[in-house]
């Protein structure tokens, strides 16, 4: 699992210290920032585009940019949010420079899939996979690209609705709706699958304490 | 305050901020709170357990697969280029960079002085003393010296430099040994590649012009390309690295660190005829067009944010200014900075009305 990133005050303070050390040219602090966030940033990059080289270039540009510009960057109490937003902007900018790559990518695709019902019939039809976790996996894959991006930002990376809205350049209510529709689409699965969804054996059972 | 949880469905729980936060990063306060809810509304106990698991499942299921090695590979690229920016050429309005560059110069000088006092036998001496029929040129004239090679290539040897080559260059390759600095204008001959051995650097070309600088007393050796393409290999005790350079690019080899770093030459020359460049006239043109044309004229990638420069237009023409002078003028006009990063030039976001 990724480390806790939103345990609010402590994390914000740690981030602020790390960030100001980095701004003063501390290479170790810079390396720590990279280490701390790179896995999550790459996961997110792969959600925004499937072009591996483009992700690689964008991450590299982003970190070199903040290193060179460290003196003139604003202070931040959420490095993670800053990095995610910057990476997304960079990837999208780079995608725009290579329009031929766009079709396969999702960042800019208009939400059409969400309005269609093809999804539900596909999931609850006759031939779906039998295992409920796999069913859920397949259902998540069938969400529209923007829904999946929002779901990932919310549940994997743990961003707030406001942060997601700013990153995806939507207003709060639209993000709320986007996520609500995604959950509604998935809901039947959680509820019918019941306890089978509990698959991580290492997790402590809440009711057992 | 907590009544709403009495009627929450699983879907409601997994959209609740506090709930998501606890599910992802449980802490004592969160445990206490949700246990209290479960005690108040016993019918919700299983729902809470399931909802918590669902949050974790969604996190796991929304994570795209990616290559675990990627992070290390990217970091290698980043750390290899971190020093380029500070030591590279003009950076306007960034006071600290100038100090950083000055500090680097001081450090390199200090290194050079230290190196001077324990000079081992140079690579040049090791290589050439075994070979017979070598012709050596030493330039102690105080100015540049031009040497004609047997194959018709011309070498301009800098002051304080020496080079050796075979009197007949009739083998399968043309080879020159260099200690110091020289500009090579190599006669094209694809069947006989031309090699320059200078310290750790081996430069291989077919026909082109370039400068090699490798004084063994200095920590930094470099190859700068004027025309054509050049491949350079740096062979050092711990590792061997290589790059291919295009016109106006240079590579620096840091001996102590055994690091190769790409950059641009101090004074890039156009890859098109100077006369064609002088015909460049921009009349209220979008600066993106100007940047693209300049990039083409010099064979250098100029990177800028398309959207950010969209509002910028300029009228300008090119006379005899250098590339960096031209960029300085343009950036002054649109209130941006330019910066050399690696072998690219980056333009910061401008302020145009």
From TrEMBL, chain B:
Start and end residues of each FecR protein domain: 141-230
InterPro entries linked to this entry: FecR, FecR_C, Ferrdict_sens_TM
Stretches assigned to the Protein FecR C-terminal domain: 279-347
Sections of the chain in a coiled coil: none
Protein's UniProt name: Ferric-dicitrate binding protein FerR (Iron transport regulator)
């Amino acid at each position: 699992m990724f480390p806790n990133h939103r345990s609010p005050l402590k994390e914000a303070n740690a981030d602020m210290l790390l960030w100001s050390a980095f701004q003063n040219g501390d290479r170790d602090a810079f390396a720590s920032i990279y280490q701390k966030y790179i896995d999550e940033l790459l996961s997110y990059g792969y959600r925004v585009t499937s072009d591996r080289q483009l992700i690689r270039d964008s991450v590299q540009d982003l970190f070199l940019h903040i290193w060179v510009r460290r003196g003139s960057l604003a202070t931040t109490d959420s490095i993670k949010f800053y990095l995610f937003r910057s990476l997304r902007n960079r990837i999208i900018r780079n995608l725009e420079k290579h329009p031929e790559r766009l079709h396969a990518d999702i960042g800019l695709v208009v939400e059409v899939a969400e309005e269609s019902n093809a999804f539900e019939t596909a999931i609850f039809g006759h031939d779906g996979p039998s295992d409920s976790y796999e069913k859920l996996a397949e259902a998540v894959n069938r969400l529209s690209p923007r829904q999946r991006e929002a779901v990932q930002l919310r549940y994997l990376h743990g961003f707030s609705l406001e942060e997601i809205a700013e990153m995806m350049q939507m207003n709060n209510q639209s993000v709320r709706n986007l996520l609500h529709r995604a959950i509604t689409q998935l809901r039947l699965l959680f509820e019918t699958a019941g306890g089978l969804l509990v698959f991580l054996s290492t997790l402590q059972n809440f009711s057992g304490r | 305050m907590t009544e709403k949880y009495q009627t929450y469905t699983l879907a409601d729980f997994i959209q609740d901020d506090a709930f998501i936060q606890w599910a992802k990063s449980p802490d004592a306060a969160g445990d206490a709170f949700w246990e209290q809810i479960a005690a108040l509304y016993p019918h919700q106990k299983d729902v809470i357990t399931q909802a918590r698991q669902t949050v974790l499942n969604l996190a796991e299921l929304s994570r795209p697969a990616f290559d675990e090695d990627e992070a290390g590979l990217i970091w290698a690229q980043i750390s290899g280029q971190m020093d380029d920016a500070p030591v590279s050429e003009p950076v306007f309005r960034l006071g600290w960079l100038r100090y950083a560059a000055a500090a680097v110069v001081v450090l390199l000088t200090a290194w050079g002085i230290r190196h001077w006092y324990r000079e081992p036998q140079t690579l040049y001496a090791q290589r050439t003393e075994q070979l017979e029929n070598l012709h050596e040129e030493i330039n102690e004239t105080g100015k540049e010296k031009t040497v004609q090679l047997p194959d018709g290539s011309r070498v301009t040897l800098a002051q304080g430099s020496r080079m050796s080559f075979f009197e007949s260059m009739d083998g399968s390759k043309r080879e020159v040994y260099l200690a110091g600095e020289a500009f090579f204008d190599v006669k094209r001959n694809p069947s006989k590649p031309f090699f320059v051995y200078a310290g750790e650097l081996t430069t291989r070309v077919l026909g082109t012009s370039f400068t090699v600088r490798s004084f063994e007393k200095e920590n930094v050796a470099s190859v700068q390309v004027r025309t054509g393409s050049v491949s350079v290999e740096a062979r050092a005790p711990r590792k061997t690295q290589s790059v291919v350079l295009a016109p106006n690019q240079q590579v620096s080899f840091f001996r102590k660190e055994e690091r190769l770093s790409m950059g641009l030459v101090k004074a890039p020359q156009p890859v098109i005829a100077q006369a064609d460049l002088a015909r460049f006239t921009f009349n209220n043109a979008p600066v993106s067009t100007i940047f693209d044309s300049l990039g083409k004229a010099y064979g250098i990638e100029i990177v800028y944010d398309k959207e950010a420069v969209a509002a910028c237009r300029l009228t300008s023409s090119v006379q005899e200014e250098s590339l960096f002078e031209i960029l300085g003028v343009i950036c002054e006009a649109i209130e941006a900075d330019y910066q050399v990063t690696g072998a690219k030039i980056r333009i910061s976001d401008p302020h145009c009305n």
